[in-house]
Amino acid sequence: MPRRADGATMIGIFVLVLLVLPARLVVAGLPLSLTPAEIVALTLGLVWVCAQMISTTGAAKGANPARTAIFVYGALLLAVYGYTTSVYLPSDELNLADHTLVLYLGYVSLVLVMCDGLGSRERLDFVLKAVVVGGTFSAVVALLQFRLDLDITQYMQFPGLRHSSTEEVPTVISRSDLRRVAGTLGHPIEFGAVSAMVLPIAAHLGFQARSRGQAATRWWICAAVIGAGLMFSVSRTAVLGLAGASIILLLGWSNRRRLIAAGAFVVFLGFMKVLVPGLLGTFYNLFAGAGEDSSIIYRTHDYPFAMREFGRSPIFGRGPGTWYPFKHQVFDNQYLLSLVETGLIGVVGFVGVIVAGMSVALWARRLSTDPNVRNLGLTIAACLVIPLLGAATFDMLSFPGITSLMFLLIGAAGAMLRLERADQAARTLLSSFHDPAERSRSLIALTGRGQGSARSGSS
User: Fold this and answer.
1) 177: phi then psi, degrees, rounded to nearest 5
2) pTM listed for this prediction
3) Cα 92–314–359 angle (5° rounding)?
4) DSSP strand pairing (161-163 vs 172-175)
5) Using CA atoms, how far apart are residues 365 and 456, in angstroms rounded to an integer?
6) Cys-Cys link to 9, which of 5, 274, 306, 419 (CB 3.0-4.6 A)?
7) β-bridge partners, 162
8) CA atoms in the 13 A half-sphere facing the CB of 341
């Protein structure tokens, strides 16, 4: 029978719009520059509000740590916005503060729908598969940009969409006689960081399919393509993020899986050396010569200036989104930028919501007895390490691709914990019945309700 559209369907549409459409396309005719993905995210918020008002949609209700974390983060940002806009701001900075608040409303909506709109683990897998497919498409675009110097994003024009004001920023940048490519995203650094976050998810789907006796080759192909895209970004941020995620994964994986991953990594590096002979040497030089690299020097020379700006308003900052290029000095460090824009409140909230997402994912892992679910919890926690590290190397929250993916995974952690709590409650209830017939009737009743209220956070 055909499946009805649900929260996973809407989020899958959001993911594909986010990763398939070029990041520079925005909806024409609006007073704010909003991408189609941001419009979909705001629509998700409206749907979530409507679903919470009734009890017939199957949307979960009740407490959830991920939802609490995003509520606290949103409240902190709202307090920063209210305080900073109550004093004088130039009209351009005030408009940017309004724009930033709208964007964060979409991010909060994404977390809420992920937490409450997925009725089963199969629907969570559906969303993760959409993430991997979208990441693979972006990596294929990057491959064409890197190998053929063919940027197909310039031909992806759609009615009702226009290029944003960042049109003059190239999608292909030179570094050490190599092309740094961005795929469908806004910058090679963002593309590399997104690829680093999607790669562990593709590997999880491959391991999961193999354990279930399903076809796993397609997911390993996706993982290889995404890994190649990460290399084509020629980004230190991507390598550092993937290294941090790998440490978390290796600590939680079995010895057999560690050996498989190590062998696959060696084979992949050999393939990349044959495909692009000078690429591995370029990455080595990026780290070996980091002390003399102009980009590293540029990232560190502005610390005193940022601290002076931070000292003017250390608690609330000067306003979200108000420190922008072409008017102010660029901080290639999200922590510095957040200190200036949102003060200590914003930085604590930013770090806190990521750590909360990692903790919730590991909590769900601890509750589960299913090895695939346990591996997914570990994978999500590892992926969320990447924005924590990447925020120190570029202004991460200025790029909607990686920011949206970060909040999506925080919501996925909340959905995992909700589903595990519901299953644990069901197991406890069934174990209380000694009559097999009564236990079967209870199981049927729970299965019939399971897609809705029985899987709510309060079950």
Assistant:
1) 65, 15
2) 0.90
3) 100
4) unpaired
5) 18
6) 5
7) 26
8) 32
Report residue 184 as tokens: 């469908």
Using alpha carbons, list the distances in angstroms from residue 337 to 99, 190, 209, 210, 378.
17, 17, 41, 43, 30
Contact criterion met (CB below 8 Å) for 113 and 83: no
Neighbours of 1 (CB within 10 A): 3
Tell me the residue ranges of DSSP E strands in 160-238: 161-163, 172-175, 178-181
pLDDT tens string for the chain (459 positions)? 466 778 899 999 999 999 999 998 999 988 888 999 999 999 999 999 999 898 887 788 888 999 999 999 999 999 999 999 988 888 888 999 999 999 999 999 999 999 999 989 999 999 999 999 999 999 999 999 998 888 898 888 889 998 876 445 566 676 556 788 999 998 999 999 999 999 999 999 999 999 999 999 999 999 999 999 999 998 889 999 999 999 999 999 999 999 999 999 999 999 998 888 888 888 888 777 666 666 666 666 677 888 888 888 899 999 998 988 777 777 888 999 999 999 999 999 999 999 999 999 999 999 999 999 999 999 999 999 999 999 998 899 999 999 999 999 999 999 999 999 888 877 777 666 666 666 566 656 555 544 444 344 333
Contact in structure between 427 and 384 (CB atoms under 8 Å): no
| CA angle (455 as vertex; 47, 219 as ends), nearest 5 | 80
Q: Hey, is 171 helix, strand or coil?
A: coil
Length of the chain: 459
Phi/psi at 158 (nearest 5 deg)?
A: -130, 145
- The three-class DSSP label of residue 180 is strand
CA distances from 421 to 62, 63, 112, 127, 370 (A): 12, 11, 17, 20, 13
Q: Phi and psi dihedrals of 179, rounded to 5? A: -90, 130
Q: Are 184 and 49 in contact (CB under 8 A)?
A: no
Cα separation, 280 vs 301, in Å, equals 28
The structural domains of the chain, with segments of one domain joined by +, span: 7-452
* Residue 158 CB neighbour total at 10 angstroms: 11
The pair phi, psi for residue 45, each rounded to 5°, is: -60, -40
